[in-house]
Amino acid sequence: MLTPALLLSAALFVIGTLGVIVRRNAIIIFLCIELQLNAVNLAFVALSRYTGIEGQLYVFFVMTVAAAEAAVGLAIIISIFRHYETVNVDKFNVLKW
Amino acid sequence: MTDILFILFAVVAVGGAVGVVIGRSPVASLLFMVATLASVAGIYVLFEAHFLAAIQVLVYAGAIMVLFLFVIMLLNLGHDYRADLRYGSWSLLSLVVVGLTAGVLMQGFSGDVGADLLEDGAAAAAAIDAAVIEKGAVGVIADPLFTDYVVAFELMGLLLLVAIVAAVVLAKPRGSGEG
Hints:
The structure holds two protein chains of two kinds.
Chain A: H1 2-22, H2 26-51, H3 54-84
Helix pairs in contact in A: 1-2, 2-3
Chain B: H1 2-22, H2 26-46, H3 50-75, H4 89-110, H5 115-145, H6 150-171
Helix pairs in contact in B: 1-2, 2-3
């Protein structure tokens, strides 16, 4: 069952990448990044079954970092929305040349 | 039975992931995401990672997704689907990137990556099962977490504190207080 799980992980990661590229809504982009993190977690858990418990510890850490990242990222999105009245990432072009 | 459950969870996970990307409103995308997270938690159970499955449902599908939902409803988003999708050269770029990523990952994962791993993998799986029976599903995670990885654990607490403070400072309305 290891190879199917790794292939599922790859599929989820690729779909997440696609979402990050094709969507402009900052919140959906965030959701797709969470999807990518989850795909990696799935690979960790699947491999930890055959290598030892450490893989599950890393998943625990990744989840913590994901929670912190979601909190800060959503705060930034709220802050940007206050300023621009939109979450369309193409509209935030101050740092673009 | 395990294989049938795995296929079921995998189909729901991939379907939910596609739904996240093509969902018309952010709330729909979010609900698809919850379905994906729940079925990934089911796959964790199939790999005997019971504690992580519980955490996945409680923290990820519960807390983090509700946080996203709060923000979506607070900002009243989701009325401009046409403006939300990129077309033209961006879709071409996405196809190239996705094709390359998929190719590399599939080649790395579908080969005999597990062949030598599975040989001594049975021993590792048996060791994990024995540890779960001895210490319980939580204890088997908590034991290394509070001994070998205690520094990382404490740093994680510091990271969460910094993230909370940063989120409060960033989301505070401009001009309120002295910030």
